[in-house]
Amino acid sequence: MECEGVDKKANSNVNVLRLFGVDIPIPIPIPYDVSLQSDHSSTLTDERRRVSTSPKKRSKRKCPSSSPESSTKKPKKEKKPRPSREVIDRIGADGLTLPSEITQKIESLQNEQSRQDKKPRLLLQKILSPTDVDDSQSRLLFPRGQIKDHDFVNERERKTLHEDGQEGRVPVTVLYFDEGGEERMLIEKKANLGRWPKPLKKPTLETIAVANTSSVKWNYSLQTVWVAIMKASKLNEGDKVQVWSFRHGDDDECLGLVVRKVDV
């Protein structure tokens, strides 16, 4: 039996294994060069670092058009200041919004001192509501929040109104225009100023029971001849009316009111 072994051939990349007289070539593995791997890995690392540190490309956003129309902002609406008490008094004193027929009539009712010190004042301006033109209620409501001059009644009148509740009445002189004829006529009538309870949001037995107590909030109201004034002046729901107040008589003890329709 022939001896088996491995025959290395010089300058050859293979070994020869002799087995049973047969030469079997066996490739010699190539030695692993560590330096080559380190160079390659360092190259990859440098490449990754260069990629990671490179500035990112930002997506370009389209800027809004800088046309004059888009850049122009709408101006804010200026809030008109509320008229001061001096302005209201000046309007009443100059009679800027009262027809001459009314101012002359007021002067004829006043004494000389009243003409100088107690000029007509704008009491309120409102839009007539459905209840204002309701014949069954027969009153023109003066909402407290819309009254511009809360001192239009004197102490005696205020005491009468507040102590007697809904039954309290103060006599007033009312001036208004009758628009029924070919020419309008200025009418003078006697009426009453009273108080009217503010409507209850959710009426209950308890709230109705205290309706005549001092805890209820009240509004002033023109009563007695309001329906006649409304029909003579041809007033309807949605019309705007002005109510002016003035004093007349001895010691200005009498209260007067002017009711007139104005353009909206």
Automatic annotation (TrEMBL):
<keyword id="KW-0238">DNA-binding</keyword>
<feature type="region of interest" description="Disordered">
    <location>
        <begin position="35"/>
        <end position="94"/>
    </location>
</feature>
<keyword id="KW-0539">Nucleus</keyword>
<dbReference type="InterPro" id="IPR015300">
    <property type="entry name" value="DNA-bd_pseudobarrel_sf"/>
</dbReference>
<feature type="compositionally biased region" description="Basic and acidic residues">
    <location>
        <begin position="81"/>
        <end position="92"/>
    </location>
</feature>
<protein>
    <submittedName>
        <fullName>Uncharacterized protein</fullName>
    </submittedName>
</protein>
<keyword id="KW-0805">Transcription regulation</keyword>
<dbReference type="InterPro" id="IPR005508">
    <property type="entry name" value="At2g31720-like"/>
</dbReference>
<dbReference type="GO" id="GO:0005634">
    <property type="term" value="C:nucleus"/>
</dbReference>
<dbReference type="Pfam" id="PF03754">
    <property type="entry name" value="At2g31720-like"/>
</dbReference>
<feature type="compositionally biased region" description="Polar residues">
    <location>
        <begin position="35"/>
        <end position="44"/>
    </location>
</feature>
<dbReference type="GO" id="GO:0003677">
    <property type="term" value="F:DNA binding"/>
</dbReference>
<keyword id="KW-0804">Transcription</keyword>
